[in-house]
Structure formats: C-alpha cells, structure tokens
C-alpha cells in the first residue's frame, strides 16, 4: 500500500462512514438519559454522577414565567431504546438553576442559554440496569481548546433529515433507538449567522434589549448537510475530546432553523454561568476517563443502524407543538 492509498483510507475513515446519524453500539453511551418536559416535549440529559443530570434550562423552566416546572419529573435511565417498558424511571428531587434576573426579558435570555442541574432520588444499581450508568466528564472550566473543523458528536433521538418537511405534517423524525451524529465546529459568522439572528429576534420579541454574548456558544454543522439535531433534542450534549463541552438549547432559534443544518451549542464554560458551574461542581463524579479515539471506534463498531429508521409517523405532532415565537 503506497502513501496516497494510506492518505485516502485515512480520509475515508473520517468522511466515508457517513455523517448521517447512526445507531451506536449498545452500551457505548451510558451517560445519556431522557425525560418528558412540560415546555419542550422530550428532553435529553447527561449524567455527571449517578444521581446528577445536566440538561437545558428551557426543559425545566418557562422563559416567560416566574418559576420552573413544579410537577414531578421522572428521568428515564439505563436504556437507549425509548419505550414505556424500557429503562428505569427515577424521580427528580431538586432542580438547580443559575441565578435568574427579576425582569422577564433578561430571565428569558438567561434560561435560553443556560444549563440546569437535576438531582435524582436514587442511584440505579448495575444489576438492575439494561445499560449500566456511567457519568461523563464535563468541561465547565474551558480547558478543552475547541478549534475550527474540530470533530465532535451529539447523541439523541430526534434529527431533521435532508428532504423532510416541517409543515404541514412531518416536523422531525421521532426515533425509538438512540442515534449519534458527527458534527464539526465551524465559523459562527459564516454558518450560524441565520440561527444567531433568529435567536436575537426571538429574544427581542420577548422584550430583551441587552447585550448578546457571542462567546457563550459555538456553531456546529454536518459537513454533508444530511441531518441535524433538532426538535426534542434540547439538553443533548456536545461531546468533544471525550468530554461534554456544551448543550443544545435556544429553541426559539433552533425551531425555525431545522432546514439550515447548523446548530448553536451553548458552552458549559461560558462566562455567565462560570460561578454557577463552579458552585455545583462538587456534585460531579465521572467514573471513567474517556479516550476520545477509542471511544469513537467503539461507538461505531455496531453502526448497523445507518439508513434504517425506526420513527413513528403517527407520533410526529404529539410531542412538539408550534410554540416558537419565530417560526418559518
């Protein structure tokens, strides 16, 4: 095998696998959970310890209201196949949010770009779990340098595919099996300008007239423009270098951008939540030091789900309503 064949094979291992979301090997994402949200239908969470989950604040708090959801929340753990009879449901006993401003507009802006911490009632023993739970390391200090064209991934259940129609019927693909998609970090001014403007417009519609911190988020996209994480993926983590570095949030922007194939991911190391993340960091207890390259090979070892969809068309409209203030 000559030098150029080696280069081509190396390129193919990155590009030829396909950017379309694929079904990962069973048990390779033991840090992922999900729950039904009063405000966003279905939301994703990431385990930071056996009893601590990080998700998006928009999943548990109303940006236009004065208090977070006080109804009981049950997080589904230990299964990556969404079904009423799969997984173990654990009740959330406490929700921890960053300090929120008193004014409605500033509160809405803070909620749409911040994470929330959920404390679970109990630890799930491995013997009971279909997939034993293992929390992931979170980069809340900004130690990981995220460069342009950095390859990261996002796991979840809802993806918008090329050719799908948002209206009048199909809003997104509601998957039963978990999917993982590779995304790369790109220039925000070039690829996320539209979604940034939509986010700012949505916040302006809520009365926010303050400063928009552009350093609090990164722009990610699918290089092949095949699919993108979208509805029902709020709270999904962006995993880079084997650590959770950010969370998919800002639904009032993402909702209207599902045909753009780019996403704004808000960073856990953003300046506006630095004190909050440091304060709650005592709750974090990752149980394994993930080797990034090994993890990517391991997660792809059962990528047999590529192109095999398991969505339920009759459930498209049941989980997500047209609640965005900036729809197309």
Automatic annotation (TrEMBL):
GO BP of this protein: proteolysis
Keywords, alphabetical: Disulfide bond, Signal
Keyword Lipoprotein among record annotations: no
Gene Ontology MF term list: serine-type endopeptidase activity
TM segment ranges: none
Keyword Magnesium included in the entry's annotation: no
Signal peptide: 1-18
Xref: SMART domains: Tryp_SPc
Gene3D superfamilies, sorted: Trypsin-like serine proteases (2.40.10.10)
Domain Peptidase S1 residues, every copy: 7-292
InterPro entries found in the cross-reference section: Peptidase_S1_PA, Peptidase_S1_PA_chymotrypsin, Trypsin_dom
PANTHER family: CHYMOTRYPSIN-RELATED, PEPTIDASE S1 DOMAIN-CONTAINING PROTEIN
Name of this protein: Peptidase S1 domain-containing protein
């Amino acid at each position: 095998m000559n030098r150029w064949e080696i280069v081509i094979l190396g390129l193919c291992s990155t590009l030829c696998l396909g950017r379309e979301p694929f079904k990962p090997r069973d048990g390779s994402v033991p840090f992922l959970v999900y729950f039904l949200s009063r405000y966003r239908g279905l939301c994703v969470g990431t385990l930071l310890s056996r009893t601590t989950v990080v998700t998006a604040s928009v999943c548990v708090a109303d940006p236009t209201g004065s208090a977070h959801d006080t109804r009981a929340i049950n997080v589904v753990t230990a299964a990556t196949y969404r079904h009423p009879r799969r997984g173990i449901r654990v009740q959330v006993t406490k929700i921890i949010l960053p300090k929120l401003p008193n004014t409605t507009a500033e509160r809405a802006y803070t909620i749409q770009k911040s994470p929330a911490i959920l404390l679970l009632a109990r630890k799930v023993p491995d013997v009971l779990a279909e997939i034993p739970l293992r929390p992931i390391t979170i980069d809340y200090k900004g130690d990981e340098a995220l460069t342009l064209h950095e390859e990261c991934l996002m796991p979840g259940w809802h993806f918008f595919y090329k050719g799908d129609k948002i209206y009048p019927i199909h809003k997104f693909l509601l998957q039963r099996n978990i999917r993982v998609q590779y995304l790369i970090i790109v220039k925000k001014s070039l690829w996320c300008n539209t979604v940034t403007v939509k986010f700012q417009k949505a916040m302006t519609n809520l009365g926010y007239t303050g400063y928009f911190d552009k350093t609090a988020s990164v722009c990610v996209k699918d290089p092949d423009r095949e699919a993108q994480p979208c509805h029902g993926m709020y709270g999904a983590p962006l995993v880079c270098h084997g650590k959770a570095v950010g969370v998919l949030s800002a639904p009032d922007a993402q909702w209207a951008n599902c045909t753009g194939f780019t996403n704004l991911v808000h960073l856990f190391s953003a300046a506006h939540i630095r004190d909050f993340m440091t304060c709650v960091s005592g709750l974090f207890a990752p149980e394994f030091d993930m080797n990034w390259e090994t993890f990517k090979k391991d997660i792809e070892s059962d990528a047999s789900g590529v192109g095999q969809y398991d969505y339920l068309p009759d459930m498209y409209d049941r989980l997500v309503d047209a609640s965005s203030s900036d729809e197309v």
